[in-house]
Structure formats: C-alpha cells, structure tokens
Automatic annotation (TrEMBL):
Record has Transport as a keyword: yes
Source organism (scientific name): Bosea vestrisii
InterPro entries: AAA+_ATPase, ABC_transporter-like_ATP-bd, ABC_transporter-like_CS, ABC_transporter_ATP-bind, P-loop_NTPase
Entry similarity comment: Belongs to the ABC transporter superfamily.
PANTHER family xrefs: ALIPHATIC SULFONATES IMPORT ATP-BINDING PROTEIN SSUB (PTHR42788:SF13), TAURINE IMPORT ATP-BINDING PROTEIN-RELATED (PTHR42788)
Pfam families: ABC_tran
PROSITE patterns cross-referenced by the UniProt entry: ABC_TRANSPORTER_1, ABC_TRANSPORTER_2
Protein name (Swiss-Prot/TrEMBL): ABC transporter ATP-binding protein
Keywords, comma-separated and alphabetical: ATP-binding, Nucleotide-binding, Transport
SUPFAM superfamilies: P-loop containing nucleoside triphosphate hydrolases
Entry keyword Transmembrane: no
Sequence ranges assigned to domain ABC transporter in this UniProt record: 27-259
C-alpha cells in the first residue's frame, strides 16, 4: 500500500487567482453557459460564463454548494453533456463527445456486477480490441497500481466500497486517459478509507502524470489534493473565486497554512 510520503514536491504556481493561467492551457473552458429545460416551462440557467484554463498535469478541484453546477461542468468536460453555448477544448481539439482522452470516475462505482474486478478493468481493453492475454496482463498491472491485485477474481458484491472505488479508478485508467474526471469519487466512503484513497490517488497522479478535475464537497479533501480549488457560486453556477494551494505535498492537516486556507475558503463559501 502506498503512503503519502511517495508524493514529491511540486512547484507552486504564483499565478493570480483567476481562471486564466500563465502555464499553457490543456483544458480550455471558454464562456460556457448551460441551461436545462425547467419543469415548469422556460429554462433553468445552471452555468453562466464559465472561463477556466487547466494546465497539463494540474490537479484542480471544483467545490461549491449543492446545485451550483459542479457535476454539470464535469459532464460537459467529459463530453457526456453539451454546453448550451461556449467552447471546451482539450489540447487543440474541441470536445465533441466522450473518448477524447477523458476517463471518468463517479461517486457510485458503477461497476458491472456480473464481472470480476479483472473483468471490469479489462472491459475497456476489450472494447479497444486488445488480445486476451494482453488485456489480462494490463488489467492486472492496473489492479496492482491500485493495490488490488489479490482481489482480481472478486465480484463487486464481494468487495468493500473502497475496493470497488479502487476498481473504478483502475478501470478509468485502462485506456490511459490524459484526463481523469472524478465526481465525488470518495464521497460515500468512511473517513479512513477516504484518506487512504486520497493518498492512493495522489500517488497515481504523480506516477502517471494525469490532469485531474475533481468534484468534492469537502474543503479538507480539496486542500489535501489540489493545485487549485475553483469555488463555484450557485444560481446560476459561476466561478466565485479560485484558490491556489501552494503547500508542498505531502500536506498535513495540522499545518498553519493548511488551516488558514481552510478558513479562507470556508468563509468565502459561507458568505
Ligand atoms: N438533466 C437535467 N435536467 C434539468 N435540470 C438539471 C439536470 N441536471 C442537473 N440539473 C440541475 O442543474 C443544477 C446543477 O446540478 P449539478 O448536479 O450540476 O450540481 P452540483 O453542484 O453537482 O450538485 P451536488 O453538489 O448536489 O452534486 C441543479 O439545479 C440541478 O437540479
């Protein structure tokens, strides 16, 4: 099992607290609006003028009150939903659907119950047409990466929530996506498992150099993981403020800088 000590320091970015960055953008979100048809007629404006650049290998968290549009924005980046107007590009390519280098992990593990851990991870490889033996080898390697090699033949019902979420992460990594989009992936887990999986994720992020967009309700989790924290305000969802997290990793919850930033985000969130 990994430990937080595996995580080396990364240079903090001294960029202003804005959606634009000095590093070359990898995910570019420009003037994104999203409206849904409201049940009582008319439209419900959910996202309003979202502008955000995310750099390659950056770890960005989205936080904000329930209903402020975090999942909607993540789904649009994933290509699972379309913006009403505006543009999203990954590299130079506009996002027109899933499968452009985005791997998605949801809160509910959404594993196939009739497949083992190995079967769930190798599913993506099967779709990509890899030969059987190579599928098996690569899937086992990913299960090893998430510390679950010994559970390769277990079915989801035989695994704890934390184990299932590890399989979900391994499955999302199967096609080696450049971007990992995670929607409250640890929200349903107990505190200890959650902390353990945060450390796992940081290790994987470090080892595999992914760009991560991570939705969470937890300021603590966002502070432990992220390079930047994007706070969305509701009705309609818009960027209220972006916080740089300059502390080197591994971070400690007892650091004064951690607690000062926690208080600042909390006060902004509750204002
Ligand atoms: N398919 C849909 N049709 C209509 N309204 C929707 C649809 N999906 C989301 N909404 C509405 O859009 C708003 C934003 O929802 P979204 O799930 O993105 O928020 P969120 O910030 O992720 O919330 P939570 O923190 O509770 O998960 C909510 O008011 C929600 O009811």
């Amino acid at each position: 099992m990994s430990c937080a000590g595996d995580i080396s320091m990364r240079e903090p970015d001294a960029t202003p607290q804005a959606g634009r960055r000095t590093r070359a953008p990898f995910i570019r979100i420009e003037a994104v609006h999203k409206a849904f048809a409201a049940r009582q007629g008319g439209e419900l404006m959910v996202l309003d003028s979202i502008d955000l650049d995310i750099a390659e290998n950056e770890f960005v968290s989205l936080i904000g009150r329930s209903g402020c549009g975090k999942t909607t924005l993540l789904n649009i980046i994933a290509g699972l939903d379309a913006a009403t107007s505006g543009r999203i590009a990954i590299g130079e390519r506009p996002v027109t659907g899933p499968g452009q280098g985005q791997g998605v992990v949801f809160q509910q593990h959404a594993l196939f119950p009739w497949l083992t851990a190995l079967g769930n991870v190798s599913f993506g490889f099967r779709k990509a047409g890899l030969p059987r033996e190579e599928r098996r080898e690569r899937s086992l390697e990913l299960l090893r990466l998430v510390g679950l090699e010994a559970a390769a033949n277990k079915y989801p019902r035989e695994m704890s929530g934390g184990m299932q979420q590890r399989v979900s992460i391994a499955r999302a990594l199967a096609l080696d996506p450049q971007i990992l989009l995670m929607d409250e992936p640890f929200g349903a887990l107990d505190e200890l498992t959650r902390i353990e999986l945060q450390q796992e994720l940081l290790r994987i992020w470090q080892a595999r150099r992914k760009t991560v967009v991570f939705v969470t309700h937890s300021i603590d989790e966002a502070l432990m993981l992220s390079d930047r924290i994007v706070l969305l305000a509701p009705n309609p969802g818009r960027i209220q403020r972006i916080f740089e997290v300059p502390m080197p990793r591994p971070r400690s919850r007892t650091e004064p800088a951690f607690n000062a930033l926690y208080d600042e985000i909390w006060s902004e969130l509750s204002s």
